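Dear Dr. V.,

Thank you for agreeing to look over these. As mentioned in my earlier message, I'm a first-year student in the group and I'm still getting used to reading structure tokens, so any feedback on how I've presented them would be very welcome. I ran two proteins. I've put each sequence directly above its structure. The first is here:
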Amino acid sequence: MPRIAYVNGSYVPHHEASVHIEDRGFQFADGIYEVVACINGKMTDERGHLDRLERSLDELGIPMPVTRRSLQFIIREMVRRNRLKNANVYIQVTRGVAKRDFPFPVEVPPSIVLTARNFQFDNNKNVEKGVTAMTVADIRWKRRDIKTTMLLAQVLAKQEAMDGGAYDAWMVDDEGFVTEASSSNAWIVTKDGKLVTRNATTSILRGVTRTAFEKICSGLQMKIEERAFTPAEAYEAQEAFNTSAVALVVPVIMLDGKKIGTGEPGPVAKKLYAEYRAYAEGQRGEHVEWVANLDEDEA
């Protein structure tokens, strides 16, 4: 089936899609991105992802290339034109095309590119069987709360994990605390049943899927502790998992060669995955609004 991309106002064959060599996204990683999941034909957490997209653009001083309503139409048109029922729609916005120079260019329109990729949310082996992970040093810049296209550190982290025989990387800061996984938020379940994930500061990207889980867990009366935790605490946890817009909930069954809990996906991860699927289908009320909610001391 031919794939279609959207580039600056035009729907074009994927293999012909291109941007200018002096686009600042290519030259400087001067841009942001978001991913919206379409599950069984329904957009999931679209509101939250567009909230975060607008906030990331504002933090970088890049204007919205189109209105939110227009972008919502383009997202749906991408799914329709690619004849997809289950997909991840990638949105990338850069500062635009200009002579290569560090200062912001004046009166240059931003560039916008969308692609849609088929993704099978059902019968996902990573979700059903769990994955292994290893810890690596977090070498990213200090504004990780902005979802930029500057992903080289994450690429290196993921590759280091794969070279070490693991599926994913959990990044660790200079103080020895887990920040997040290579492209998702990291969670553990303590022996007393509490869910722990890193508090939202400029040290991490506050996930839209994570925000949805805050609502879901509140409805289930499950306690979430937003705080830093160490790899050693993770080794002793009952469960561990990642959350993201792409794979939703992925159990981590082994970290640094140490079995987490029983070494199999646990009941909490399974429960939350089922609840999120119900949420995605509209069975748990409205989808959440996203706000940064950064801790004041690190905002």
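The second protein is here, in the same arrangement:
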Amino acid sequence: MINARLIAHLTGWIVLFTGSGFLLPLIPAYVYSDGSALWFWQSLVVSTFAGGLLLAAGGQTSGQEPRYRDSLAVVGISWFFISLMGSLPFIFSGLMDPWSAIFESFSGYSSTGASAIPDLRVFPKGLLFWRSVIQWFGGMGIIILMVAVLPFLGAGGQIMFKSEVSGPTSDKLRPRVAQVAKILWGMYLSLTVILVILLMFGGLDFFESLCQALVTISTGGFSNYNESAAYHDSRYVQAVILAFMFFGAISISLYWQALTGNWRALVLNAEVLFLVGILIFCSSVAAANLVWTGTITSPGEAFFQSLFQATAVTSTTGQFSADWTSWPYLAQAMIFFLFFVGGCSGSTSGGVKCVRWLILFKSIHRACRRMIHPRGVFPVRIQGKNISEQTLESVWLFFLVYFLTMAVSTLVVTAVGLDIMTAFSSSASALANVGPSLGLVGATGSYAAFPPVAKVTLSLCMLLGRLEFYSFIVIFFPEFWRR
């Protein structure tokens, strides 16, 4: 049965832990004296009060471990609370209306990168840093971090871990779940530090390098500039960002396996090869279209720009080095197609994930072979391992729920007055946690002008896409709460 007191207790701890993150942007706020410090102190007070209320509601729960349904409830409820709390500094600043602030926070924690800020130049550095911080925490996952630092989660920690790690399958690491969480966060932090150093070599100051690193390795994409990566008129800086967007689209557990001597796990991984293949194909077609139409005359420049945009979209980072929404239609189509691909399972990227497409294609191939040989037995295999029928069913259901949700979101957004292209591409972008879209938003636009209903709808889509539906949807079923 559901242990409501334990759920409240654990959610309270997570809210308190997340609320302590408001201390981080105080550093640039005081260093640059930008006047934003008060907003973070106010947010810290509110989050501490909210977390304390939840702990009080939970009461004494020592010795109790969350069960399966308890763990699912904690994941879904915590992410919703965390995303709401993240909007507090934006609201207290008075620079954004509450709906835009909530949209910005949901986009940040889900590492989407869709922004409701029309002009980033008016924002103080404290708020800019906060946008980067919430994307970095959201990229790997707050719950995974909590599993690493809270020993009392017990067996429930493994369920929470699986609920937050993206993809139907993931490369397993040998230690127990708390150790796995520590390894993943250690790798995540290491990649971030390396990226900061590389960006500083490119001429960026420490603050800009840190913000850029936080949103790149998390495949979030929030930038301190409306022009995103195009602001940095440096091929070196853009190439470094491109490389780490690609790294962010690969499961971090594969890097650990490579460091422990198993390089084949990374180099010959089926998902990685699929990701590389589809990036090269779409980039080549887009580049050829750019050269053919005279949009970009240099084949090398055309391929680099196409590869950058393709990697940004596939990794769901959403940064851009050029306005690809103004490119010829075929080039646009190649980039937009990648909205529906996503990175590898177990990575910080969003989207459908490469492994699901591999399973789908192999399932279709098996269905065709069964028509030819009705009595034949044809298992679906990935990396030489048989995929269970339960996993195959979950993949097909995921596609059904994914595109059904996209259709409903598109209808709602068009109902409040936006055109069909804007509504469809924005819904696709939100569910895939990409950020930019076609229509009124474009690669360089913002969602600031969207009506409140559209912002709320897309915010929920971003959260659903980040948690891959079930961990959040299940808590709305009445039978979930019954004994």
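From my reading of the second output: The longest helix spans residues 389-415. Residues 170-175 have pLDDT under 50 and may be disordered. Does that match how you would interpret it?

Kind regards,
E.
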